[in-house]
Design brief:
- With about 450 residues, this protein is an alpha/beta fold.
- It folds into three domains: about 130 residues, Response regulator (Rossmann fold, 3-Layer(aba) Sandwich), CATH 3.40.50.2300; about 170 residues, Rossmann fold, CATH 3.40.50; about 130 residues, Helicase, Ruva Protein, domain 3.
- The longest helix is centred in the N-terminal third of the chain and has 28 residues.
- The two termini are about 45 Å apart.
Length: about 450
């Protein structure tokens, strides 16, 4: 099957005939009788070429070209008209149309023209897809949202990105600290060097030290060959240490030396190793209070917090829930090969009312769940977990963060039928962290 073609024309018989001709050439054809329906299909479907009548009941087809291009620039539009004028033809091409044809006079040109338009659209689509992947994976475009709170955080991050200053990202669990760290790295002068992310809470003290700084053969039982640490792997680039508050005092001293001198000593070695690494760290703890209470090194805290950025919780990001929800809807629909669904207004209303104690991570997991469960091409409230349906507004539910986290982990484990590796992937945590949480919360499976 060739690419999707959309015909927008209120002349039903003519549209049906043209659709049949194109289908015989192997194209999949969609039809719309007006611009409103046509634009909805452009937004939802993978359209490559649009054949649009100039005189539509609710729009001018020549002007429609510009609107289509604004949404999906790679789509090629061919305008069709019963009464062609030079002025309309010129304007159509100016607006970005691939061509402008008069109905009846140019029937023999339709198929060759559609073939050429499809080839160009497919090429443009591949370019757009490549650019999109680069944009999604690198830099601040990955940080979605228009709320003042997130824009302020992005503004601060952009200012510090071009420097080599250490950055401390603060905020609740699930607010997107690793996304910010990666964006800072790819907006920095180190963007062509490695970016290494480490979750400190996923390792024991000794294992974390060996992972970060490496070791020499014979340093301990099982050290049968030399190991490069993650600081060496990140040399020239950036290392991101998440959950930094979990680090032991001994490791804190070693980290401080790296920050101040750019050197460290591997386990089982006496000579120093020199590295050039920028540090971005993150925590959901109040490190200043912990340092003042002698639970954290005060000198390290001052060294880390020279430039701090507070990431706002999702409940304080007015208007961003819908933007993020649509982002995850597209991702998971594509991942499991389902069409991008429509969204019931009540569904989105419940998302906006929810408190989101688990922040973006919780929203991401909820959307993955509903996409997996949906059987109709519409997301409705019945697909949402039970806590969204408790009488009253869900943002008034008096649940502490631990209760929400425990229930959410239990729900994901049930969804994966006890597959802990898959549950850890969906939750966005390491397998070791999941086991620790199961033991901490005493989570029992059905």
């Amino acid at each position: 099957m060739k690419s999707n073609i959309l015909i927008i024309d209120d002349e039903v018989k003519l549209s049906a005939l043209l659709a049949r001709i194109l289908e015989m050439e192997g194209y999949h054809v969609l039809q719309a009788a007006n611009a409103k329906t046509g634009m909805r299909l452009v937004e939802r479907e993978d359209i490559r070429v649009v054949l649009s009548d100039v005189k539509l009941p609710d729009a001018n087809g020549v002007e429609l070209v510009k609107k289509i291009k604004e949404i999906k620039p790679y789509i090629e539009v061919i305008n069709l008209t019963a009464f062609g004028t030079i002025g309309d033809g010129v304007l159509a091409i100016k607006n970005g149309a691939f061509d402008y044809l008069t109905k009846g006079d140019d029937n023999d040109k339709i198929i060759p023209l559609v073939n050429k338009a499809t080839d160009k659209a497919n090429l443009q689509y591949r370019v757009t897809e490549l650019e999109g992947k680069i944009e999604i994976q690198h830099g601040f475009p990955i940080v979605l949202g228009h709320s003042p709170a997130i824009l302020e955080a992005v503004s601060l991050a952009k200012k510090v990105a071009k420097t080599d200053a250490a950055v401390l990202l603060l905020g609740e669990t699930g607010t997107g600290k690793e996304v910010f760290a990666e964006a800072i790295h790819f907006e920095s002068l180190r963007k062509n060097k490695p970016f290494v992310a480490v979750n400190c809470s996923a390792f024991s003290k000794d294992l974390l030290e060996s992972e970060l700084f490496g070791y020499k053969t014979g340093a301990f039982t099982g050290a049968v060959k030399d190991k490069r640490g993650l600081f060496e792997e990140a040399n020239g680039g950036t290392i991101f240490l998440d959950e930094l508050g979990e680090m032991s005092f001994d490791l804190q001293a070693k980290l401080l030396r790296v920050l101040e001198q750019g050197t460290f000593i591997k386990m089982g070695e006496t000579k120093t190793t020199k590295v050039d690494v920028r540090l971005i760290s993150a925590t959901n703890r109040n490190l200043q209070k912990e340092a003042e209470d002698n639970h954290y090194r005060l000198d390290l805290f001052y060294r880390l917090s020279g430039f701090s950025i507070e990431l706002p919780p999702l409940r304080e990001r007015t208007g961003d829930v819908e933007i993020l929800a649509w982002h995850f809807i597209r991702i998971y629909a594509a991942k499991i090969k389902k069409k991008i669904p429509e969204v019931d207004e009540r569904f989105m209303k419940l998302l906006n009312q929810h408190r989101w104690n688990g922040n973006i991570r919780e929203l991401k997991n909820v959307i993955e769940r509903v996409i997996i469960l949906m059987e109709e091409p519409v997301l409705t409230p019945k697909l949402l977990p039970y806590e969204f349906h408790i009488s009253g507004h869900s943002d008034l539910i008096a649940l502490d963060l631990h209760s929400v986290e425990k229930h959410h982990i239990w729900r994901i484990l049930n969804h994966t039928k006890g597959n802990k590796s898959e549950a850890a992937r969906i939750l966005g945590i390491s397998l070791a962290t999941l086991y620790r949480k199961i033991e901490e919360y005493q989570i029992l499976m059905n």
